[in-house]
Amino acid sequence: MTATLSRPESSDATDRHRLSVVGGLAALSLDAMASVAYGPEAIVIVLAAAGGTGLGFTLPVTLAIALLLGDLTLSYRQVIAAFPDGGGAYGVSRAHLGRRASLVAAASLIVDYVLNVAVSVAAGVAALTSAFPELLPYTVWLCLGALAVITTVNLRGIAESARAFIVPTAVFVGAILTVVVVGLFRAGPVAAVAAPEHVTNLQTIGILLLLKAFANGCAALTGVEAIANAVPSFRKPRVRRAQRAEVALGGLLAVMLLGLAVLIEKFSIHPVDGVTVLSQVTAASLGDGFGFYVVQFSTVVLLALAANTSFGGLPVLAQLLAKHNNLPHVFALRAERQVYRYGVGFLAITSALLLIVADGDMNTLVPLFAIGVFVGFTLSQIGMVRHWRRDRPRGWPGKAALNGFGALLTGLAAIVVTATKFAEGGWLIVVALPVIVLAMEWVHRSYRRIGERLELGRTPAPPRPDRSLVVVPVHTVSRLTRDALAAALSLGDHVEAVHVVDPDEDQAGFVDAWELWHPGVTLVQLHDERRRLGEPLVEHLRKHADCHVFVLIAEVEPEHPWQRILQNRRGAVLARALRRRSDAVVCRMRFRVPG
Amino acid sequence: MTATLSRPESSDATDRHRLSVVGGLAALSLDAMASVAYGPEAIVIVLAAAGGTGLGFTLPVTLAIALLLGDLTLSYRQVIAAFPDGGGAYGVSRAHLGRRASLVAAASLIVDYVLNVAVSVAAGVAALTSAFPELLPYTVWLCLGALAVITTVNLRGIAESARAFIVPTAVFVGAILTVVVVGLFRAGPVAAVAAPEHVTNLQTIGILLLLKAFANGCAALTGVEAIANAVPSFRKPRVRRAQRAEVALGGLLAVMLLGLAVLIEKFSIHPVDGVTVLSQVTAASLGDGFGFYVVQFSTVVLLALAANTSFGGLPVLAQLLAKHNNLPHVFALRAERQVYRYGVGFLAITSALLLIVADGDMNTLVPLFAIGVFVGFTLSQIGMVRHWRRDRPRGWPGKAALNGFGALLTGLAAIVVTATKFAEGGWLIVVALPVIVLAMEWVHRSYRRIGERLELGRTPAPPRPDRSLVVVPVHTVSRLTRDALAAALSLGDHVEAVHVVDPDEDQAGFVDAWELWHPGVTLVQLHDERRRLGEPLVEHLRKHADCHVFVLIAEVEPEHPWQRILQNRRGAVLARALRRRSDAVVCRMRFRVPG
C-alpha cells in the first residue's frame, strides 16, 4: 500500500509539521501492523488441515516469512535512498521498466488497495464478533456498515493528521507486545482453550502444505512499502529518518509475528469458527477480563484505520494515473470538496462487492491479498536493479544484488502464492490484473487520439469570429420569452424565434398573442406531423450550417429542489436532441421563480 | 376506465376508420369483459365463509349486481346522448360540479387505472397458474414479467387498432357463453369438482355477509363507462351506435355473470387455493380437455389486453390534467416517440408496487377496485343530474330521475364497499384519494404562482438588448479552446477567457503557451486556495452583474456513448455551480471526436 500522506502535505508546510521517526512509524505502519491481526491466522488455518502435527510447523513457517520480511526491509531501505521523492511500485517501474510494466504495477496496487479495505474491514468485524459472539450472524451487515461509515467520512473530506494515528498504533503495538511477553512467562493458558474439533481426513505434512501456509501467511507482509512511498513527509534528514522508520517497522513486525507464532504453539491454538486466532492467543495469555477487551478494541480501531489508508492511497494513485492518461480524467477531478470522489466511490463499490461475495469472511479474502502485493514488490525490486545498473553509484553491485535477491524471493513467492491459491479465488486476481492493464491501455490510446484531434501541445491558429445566429425556441408569450429574446438580442444581430407547433394546442392563439406583442424578432413556425419536439428544430438548423448557431433555451427554475417536478422537460428534451444531432451550441437560461 | 381510443384517432381520420357497434363493443369492452374473470370469484370467496348455505346465495347476490348493472347501463346511455364528445367522469364533473369535484373524480380514475393493471395482470396470471399449477410458486415473478412486457410495448409506442381487439374479445365471449350453455344442459360436472375443504368456524348468513359479497362482486362492474368516454370514435350516427354498444355490453355482461352464477350453484363450486373459480366452472362444464385450455388461454389474452387499456387511458388523462395545471407538465410531454412516457412510467411503477405488496394475489386486489369505481360513477351521475336541470331538454325530469337513482345506488354502493372493505385494504384507497386531490391542488397553486410571475396571458414589454459579456473558461491551449473562443468572438464584442488555476498543475506552462499563441482575448487567472472549480468563477461573475453574462463551456464529445467515461466532468461541475449560484446563461459547446 502506498501511504495516504501525500494529501495533507502542502508545498509550503514547514519542516516542523513533518514526521519524526516515531511519528512516521505510527502514521505509515497501519497496513503493516494490521496484518498482525490476520497473518498468523492465515498460517494456522492451512496447517490445521494436518492436525496437531501440522500446527507444530507454525513457527518454522513464520520464520520463513520473517526472513522474507528482513530482505524486503533492507531492499526498501535502498529504495528510500534511491527515490527520496517517494518511490511507489508505480513510480519506480514507470521510471525504469517502461509504461507497460508500470501499468502492471498500478493494476496490482489498485487490486491491493481494494483488497486491503475488504480484508481490514472483515478482520475488524471478526475481532468484534470474537469479543461479542452474539453479533456473528450480522457479519456482512457489520462489514457493509463499517465500510459505509469510512466511505462517508472520506467523501466529506477529512483533514487527517499523521499525529492522530500515533495513539491507536501505539496502543495496538503495546497490547500485542504485552500479550506476547505475558504469554511467554505463563506456564499454561489462563482461559480455557477450545478443544480441537474432531478432524477427519488429516492431510500429511507435505511440502505443498507448507508452501500453502507460507503463501497464506505472506499476507502479513502487506504494507511494508508504505514508508518508502512517503519519504517527502519526513523531517530532514528525510532519507535517514525514513530508513530508520522502515527498519523499526520490519523489526517490530517480525517480533510480533514470531512472538505470536511461539504462543500459538505453546498454547496449542487451533482455528475455531467465529473466534479469531489472535483473540484466542490474547485470552490464553491475558485471560478474558479487561486486558482481553483492550486488545480486541484496539484491533478493531487499528483495522478500521488500516482500511481508511486505502481511501487515502487509491484516489491519489488514480489521480496520478488519470493525469498520465491511463484512467478516465474524472479520477483527477477534485470538484468542490477536496475529495477525489470518483476514486473513493470506485473503492467503496468494489470492496463492498468483495465483502458481499466473500460473505464478510476474512479468511476467504486474505489469500487473494498476497498475489498483488508480491507482483508489486517484484516489479519495484527489478526496477531498483535497473536503477543501480544505470546510475552505478559506489558499491552498486552489492545494492543491486540485494534488490535482485529480493526480486527473486518475491517473484518466487508470487508464483507460489498464485499457484497454491489459484483455485481458491487466486484466478480472480490472475484475471483482474491483465483486464485492468488492458483497460488502461485502451484509455491511454483513446486519449492520445483525442489529444491529436485537439492539437494538444501545438499552437493552433488564432480564433476568428464568424457569422452567428441565435435561435430562441418559444412556446408562450410571457416574461420568460421576453427575457430570452432580450438576452439573445444582446448577443448578436441575427436572432430568430422558433416555434415548434404542437398540433394539440391552440396555434392561432399563440400567433395572435405574438403579433399583438410584436417583439421585433422573426418568428419561424415549424410543423411536425409526428409531434416531435427536437427533430424539427434540428432539421431547421441544418439550413444554417454556414454560421455559428446558438440555441438559447429559457427555462423556469423553481427555488426549491422538490419543485423540480413541476418543470416541464421540454428544455431538457430539446437540449438532448440538439446535443446528439446537431453542432449548435446549447445555451440554457434559468428564470428563477421564488417557491 | 376511460378508453384508450383517443390516441390513434387523428383529426383527419375518415368515418370509414371509425367504429361500428360490434367493433366498438369489442374494442371498448375489454375492461368490462375482463371482470367476468374475477367478479364471480369475488362473490364466492366471501360467501364460502358461511359454507354450502352461503354459496347458495351466489345467484341472488349476482342478481342484485346485475340490477345495478342495468341501471348503470341506462344511465350511461343518457351520458352518451348528453356528452357526444366523450364524457368521462373527469369531464362531466369538471363541466357541472366544479374543479374540486373534478379532481376527486380524476383521483378515483387514477386509482382505478392503476388497480385495473394490477388486478388484470394478477387475474391473468391466476388463469395461467390454474391451467399450469407448476407455475404457482412463481406468481409474483410472472406478474412482474407480464407487466414489464406490457410497459415496454407501451413505452415504444404502439399504433393499436380497435380491430385488433375484436378477435380476442369475441373468442373470450364465445368461450364463456359456450361454458354457460353447455353447463346448463349437463346433468352434473364432467371433471371432478374439488371437495370442499373442512371449514371450521362457519359464519351465519347475515346481512353483513351478503353486503360484503355484493361489495366484492361489484368489481364486475368496472369498465361499463368506457363506451361513454369514447363516443367520438364511433361511426355516424355516433350517439345511436354508442348507445347500442353500451346496451349490448350491459346485456352480454349480465348474461355471462348470471350464467356463471347459476353454474356455480349447480356444480357446487367453492373457492380452492391456486385454481380460479372460472377455471373450475369451465372444467365442470367442458371437462379438462381442449375446450378448457381454449377458455384459459383466451382469458389470459383478454386480461393482458384489459391491463393494456389502462396504459392507453391513464397517460391521456394525466396529459389532460397536466394541461389543466393539475399535474406536473411532464405528463403532457410526448417527446420523441409518440408516448407520454411519464404517465406510462408512473402506471408501471405503482402497479408493480401493488402487485408486490399483494404478492400477486388477485383476491387481495379486487376488493380495492370497486371503491374508486363507485366514487367515479356517483360523481358523473350527479353531474348528469345537474346537466339535465340546467339544460332542461324535453323529458328532462325522467332523465334526471334515472341518473339521480343511479347516483343514489352507486353512492350507496360506494359507502357499502368502503365500509365493508375498510380493514381489508379499503383504507388505502380512502387515504389515497384525498392525498392525490391535495397533491393536485398544490400543483395547481404552484403553477398559478409561476404563471403570475411569468406574466402569462399578458403582453410583456418588448425585449431590449443589453450589454453582454461572453466568458470562456479555458484550461489548455488546443483546438477545443480555439473553437470556443472563435464561437464566443462571433457572438459579442466582449469576450473574456478565464483560467481557474489548479495548484497541482503546471501554471507557467499554460501561460507561456497562451502568450505564444496570442489569441487576442483577455486572459483572467483565478486562484482558489481551496482548489474549487466553480466557486471562483461564480465569484468573478458577480463583478459583471450589470450585463448579460454568457459562460461558454467547450467540451469534448466522443462519438460512442461508452466513451463518455473518458470525459472529464469539469464542464458538468462548472455548469452545475453556475446554474445553482449565478444568473449566467450556460452555453455548452460540444467538440465531436470520432471514436
Structure description:
Two copies of one chain form a homodimer. Chain A is α/β, with parallel strands linked by helices and 595 residues long. Helices cover 64% and strands 6% of the residues of chain A. Chain A has 20 helices and five strands. Chain A has a five-stranded parallel beta sheet with strand order 3-2-1-4-5, with helices on both faces. In chain A, helix 17 links the parallel strand 1 and strand 2. The radius of gyration of chain A is 31 Å and the shape is elongated. Chain A starts with 20 loop residues before the first helix and ends with a strand.
Give short descriptive properties of this protein.
homodimer, 595 residues, alpha/beta, five-stranded parallel β-sheet, 20 helices, disordered N terminus
Let me know the number of strands of chain A.
Answer: 5
Radius of gyration of chain A: 31 Å
For the termini of chain A, the CA-CA separation is 50 Å
Please estimate the helix content of chain A.
55-70%
**If strands are numbered along the chain, what order do they take across the biggest sheet of chain A?**
3-2-1-4-5
This entry's quaternary arrangement is homodimer
Mean model confidence by pLDDT of chain A: 84
Series of H and E elements of chain A:
HHHHHHHHHHHHHHHHEHEHEHEHE
Structural class of chain A: alpha/beta
Low-pLDDT sequence parts of chain A: 1-13
Q: What does the main sheet of chain A amount to? A: 5 strands, parallel
Strand fraction of chain A equals 5-15%
In DSSP terms (H or I, runs of 4 or more residues), the helix count of chain A works out at: 20
Determine the most extensive contact between two protein chains. Answer: A-B, 88 and 87 residues
